[in-house]
TrEMBL record:
The lineage of its organism: Eukaryota, Viridiplantae, Streptophyta, Embryophyta, Tracheophyta. It comes from Cajanus cajan (Pigeon pea). InterPro entries: F-box-assoc_interact_dom. This is F-box/kelch-repeat protein At3g06240 family.
Amino acid sequence: STTIYGFGYDRSEDNYVVVQIYLSKCDPSHRALVYFVNGASWRDFEDDSLLTITYPCISVYQGSISLYFGDSLHWITFNWETNADVILAYNLIDSKFYEVNIPSEVKLEDYTLCCLRIIRDCLAFCTVMRDENWDYMVDIWEMKEYGVHTSWTKLTFMQVSNNFPGYMLPACSSDDSILFSTMKREFWPHGMQ
């Protein structure tokens, strides 16, 4: 089993929230705990949408930690009922779990690593794979309209030579460039066309 975590801000209650979800690959008896900082209390949370969720088979960079975006916490997961990799989200305002589809073009088994980011104020899905020369290939998709599956758009592609020590992942962005962070905590800018 795996435990995933999230931390965010519920602006409707002016309260910080910690979410802890226990996922089992074999047993659909998943459990979520929600901690409200102002009330200093845990709430046991059951939601049928958690019953079909497991942890994905791909390596997810900092995968046990959520991405906070748009009043929701997000994790990359796998729905065994639909046999699809999905983003599990928890809305802090209405205390509900829901799924966000990943880009249609992405088949996680083809990649070495993936992660979620915020790029240009949009939810972004990043993948890393190696090509036949062992160069790293980094793809980034952004969801231009949150929650609309057809709005996933491939934003940029970057090839990193196999002479480079490891992969790079996006750290932050502006309107026309992305700053990538390396495994050695160095930063590299990348312009977007």
